[in-house]
From TrEMBL:
This is Alpha-1,2-mannosidase, putative. Its cofactor is Ca(2+). InterPro entries: 6-hairpin_glycosidase_sf, GH-type_carb-bd, GH92_a_mannosidase_put, GH92_N, Glyco_hydro_92, PNGase. Monomer. GO terms for cellular component: cytosol. GO terms for biological process: carbohydrate metabolic process; glycoprotein catabolic process. Transmembrane segments: none annotated. Residues 1-18 form the signal peptide. GO terms for molecular function: carbohydrate binding; peptide-N4-(N-acetyl-beta-glucosaminyl)asparagine amidase activity. The lineage of its organism: Bacteria, Pseudomonadati, Bacteroidota, Sphingobacteriia, Sphingobacteriales. Keywords: Calcium, Signal. Residues 291-755 form the Glycosyl hydrolase family domain.
């Protein structure tokens, strides 16, 4: 009896310990070098705050033109840099364009400097040199020593609040700078207006409005110090204007409690003892200063930094433990870091009271759902949202409801294309929110009004003046004369139309189903049988004569070439295979894609594609061909799918700062890794089927909502045994190279029997 009681007392501690074990496998530094565009700082799952270091202050503009170097700073941090400018509170993870970088904070000591200085002469400003040897990046926690100021900086976060802890040397000149000018993809006129109100000697509030990727973006804040500041002030870098107003009656630069302008930096001054810690809480709100303050007081009411860090890491442990894998140490690092990156975006966009700013710029109340933003849909419809439908269905349900709220508030009556912070930035092509809606509806995840969702999808798909949709509807393709991405847009619209057809089929709407199923075959109108490739087509019906199948620039495609895009018919591989000459020729075409050599000149004009992300001519570092390795299944050569998938996993994902072969794109690259490591992949979201591949894990256990568990085991797993001899689902041999969603979510066991030799059979 005593032993049983002792076990019961110990069991909670053992459970906590088991959860804590997975955090050590998360390495946020992965992807911060070269093309990954991830950030190393502190955030919680799907959090509103992403508190992370920024390593330079490049402008988007240089001599009146786009400054190409700014692309390296989409996440604010570049591993190769030697200095840190400060720590800002909002960041995108893995994107190929950017915004944010709001409210940069930098601790300094010594003579006050109010400019950031330069990377080559860091002591010319408030920035500081740092070393990766004195840097720690964990899930929910970041630490670095600022060498030039001899200050240790630590960061952690709750959902809506960033928390800083700075350990100062003894100094009568210690400062904390709040830079309201700094931003990512910044330029002189980006900040529309800034307001700061000093409430007392330890609390300030305010807001910042910017015009960037999000055209009208306002972020409110509340900032609290653990220690009263002795002095404060501002430096205003605004250009002189003819009208100055009458605020000039005051000395606004020193200890003045109300500051406004476009280009402002604040400083707060302290006396510090040796190793004294000064903490800062910084809360965000999309609605108001009062809401920001309420967010702070609700989420982090006290001043226990270590407790906030522990809570953040416990949140990550809870999410990471939804999948437990048995694999090599490197594979565990890759897997759980991928899971971490996948659970950063979309981000919560609303306050603790449920209020948020809508697309109409009005304040709304989220009733019965959590409102989300940061929808990078051209990327994330492919694998991230399908992954959520398995592992985070309740969240994905709320994400779909957020998209429907976006639609309701849209003056154009369109579902989101690429949305963040109560704006649509209209980036990339397709109307892929319909894919996310279809996948959630077909798989039974969405519990809202599916009929209204179908209406929103149809309205979006029939918006004639958006990026060639009118011509697409009338002609069955987008003419090359009217768009530089005519072919890829046609292909993506066709897939999205198939998704709409699947919703209609689910809801018993045969006329709508037939209409959009017919539209989904429009890919055939840009397929040139004479050369076997997708090709730009002119308004007169002829194909464009000047055409280069290798080039990614000026050929009718966005971020890719026809070698990759010619396989973009994920909803109808059978028909594509027939068009390409049957199974053997189709498989041979995929072989050629992986085995060819793509010279550097053919992707020189594309920022998003670099040598690191390419295998042969297959571009894994960008999304359009992410499903291609699985198409061998349709060609009757599944062993090649198995071989290619395992090769991609090894070549494109490594547990190093440069371990991602391309932009993580808000978790899409990471979701591909997790699906493929588990042994299956959603080739066509909107379908209830996953294509089988070759698992890289020895075993895995998926804890699903509702208490079900789905287990995966790879018998005889090794780096050499990449081929699958047979697959059993709950003890029965699978005769198809696929598994259905419902077969997973009802629980059970999937067993792969692995071998070093492929199992081949006649086509």
């Amino acid at each position: 009896m005593k032993k049983a009681l002792l076990f019961c007392l110990l069991f909670p501690a053992l459970s906590i310990q088991a959860q804590q074990a997975l955090v050590k496998y998360v390495k946020p530094i992965i992807g911060t070098q070269k093309m990954g565009h991830t950030y190393p700082g502190a955030t919680v799952p799907f959090g509103s705050v992403q508190l992370s270091p920024d390593t330079d202050t490049l402008s988007y503009e240089f001599n009146g033109k786009y400054n190409g170097d700014v692309y390296k700073y989409c996440a604010g941090y570049k591993y190769e840099d030697k200095t840190i400018v400060g720590f800002s509170h909002t960041h995108f993870s893995g994107t190929g364009h950017s915004d944010l970088g709001d409210f940069l904070i930098m601790p300094t000591q010594g003579a006050l400097q109010m400019n950031p200085g330069t990377a080559d002469v860091p002591k010319s400003g408030f920035r500081s040199a740092f070393s990766h040897q004195n840097e720690t990046a964990e899930a929910g926690y970041y630490k670095v020593k600022l060498d030039d100021h001899q200050i240790q900086a630590e960061l952690t976060a709750s959902k809506r609040v960033g928390m800083h802890r700075y350990t100062f040397p003894k100094s009568a000149e210690s400062h904390i700078i709040l830079d309201l000018m700094s931003g990512i993809y910044n330029y002189d006129e980006k900040t529309v207006w800034t307001y700061v109100r000093v409430v007392n000697d330890s609390l300030i509030t305010g807001y910042r409005q910017t015009n960037g990727w999000a055209r009208t973006r306002t972020v409110f804040f509340a900032m609290s110090f653990s220690k009263p500041f002795k002095n404060y002030g501002q430096k205003n870098f605004d250009k002189k204007q003819v009208y100055g107003g009458f605020w000039r009656k005051f000395d606004q630069n020193n200890n003045f409690p109300e500051i406004a302008g476009r280009r402002i930096r604040m400083h707060f001054d302290f006396d510090t003892d040796e190793q004294e810690q000064v903490e800062v809480k910084f809360a965000l709100s999309p609605v108001s200063q009062d809401n920001a303050l309420e967010n702070m007081r609700t989420e982090i009411p006290g001043w226990n930094f270590d407790q906030v860090k522990t809570q953040a890491q416990e949140e990550w442990n809870k999410e990471l433990n939804k999948i437990n894998i048995n694999a090599s140490e490197d594979d565990k690092v890759n897997f759980y870091t991928a899971m971490y990156h996948a659970f950063i975006n979309p981000t919560t966009y609303g306050d603790v009271n449920g209020q948020y700013k809508g697309l109409d710029q009005n304040v709304h109340q989220a009733e019965g759902f959590t409102n989300y933003t940061t929808f990078s849909l051209w990327d994330t419809y492919r694998a991230l949202h399908p992954f959520f439908n398995l592992i985070q269905p309740s969240r994905n349900n709320d994400m779909v409801k957020s998209m429907m709220a976006h639609y309701d508030q849209s003056a154009l009556k369109m579902l989101p294309i690429w949305s963040h912070y109560a704006n649509d930035n209209w980036c990339m092509s397709g109307y892929h929110s319909v894919s996310v809606l279809a996948d959630a509806i077909v798989k039974g995840v969405y519990n809202g009004d599916a009929g209204k969702a179908l209406e929103a999808c149809i309205t979006t798909a029939n918006h004639r003046n958006y990026e060639g949709i009118g011509k697409y509807i009338d002609m069955g393709y987008i003419p090359a004369e009217s768009s530089g991405t005519s072919v890829s847009n046609t292909l993506e619209y066709a897939y999205d139309d198939w998704c709409i057809a699947q919703i209609a089929k689910k809801l018993g709407k045969p006329e709508i189903y037939e209409t959009f199923l017919k539209r989904s075959q429009n890919w055939k109108n840009v397929y040139d049988k004479s050369i076997g490739f997708m090709r730009p087509r002119l308004a007169d019906g002829t194909f464009k004569k000047e055409f280069d199948v290798l080039s990614t620039h000026g050929q009718g495609f966005i971020e890719g070439n026809t070698w990759n895009y010619s396989f973009f018919v994920p909803h109808d591989p059978e028909s594509l295979m027939t068009a390409m000459g049957g199974k053997k020729r189709f498989a041979a075409r995929i072989d050629s894609l992986f085995n060819m050599h793509l010279p550097d000149e053919f992707f020189a004009d594309t920022e998003d594609i670099t040598r690191e992300g390419i295998i042969g001519g297959y571009v894994h570092g960008n999304e359009p061909a992410h499903h291609v390795a699985y198409l061998y299944n349709w060609a009757g050569q599944p062993w090649k799918t198995q071989e290619r998938v395992r090769m991609i996993l090894k070549m494109q994902y490594k547990p190093t700062p440069d371990g991602l072969g391309g932009n993580d794109d808000c978790g899409q690259m990471s979701a591909w890794y997790m699906f493929s490591s588990l042994g299956f992949y959603p080739v066509s979201p909107g379908s209830d089927e996953y294509a089988l591949g070759s698992p890289a894990v020895k075993s895995a256990s998926l804890t699903l909502e509702g208490g079900k568990t789905f287990s995966i085991e790879a018998v005889n797993q090794s780096d050499k045994n990449v081929y699958v001899q047979k697959v059993l689902l709950n003890g029965k041999v699978l005769t198809e190279n696929s598994i259905k969603h419902q077969e997973i979510v009802k629980g059970g066991k999937l067993m792969f029997y692995m071998s070093s030799k492929p199992v081949k059979f006649s086509n």
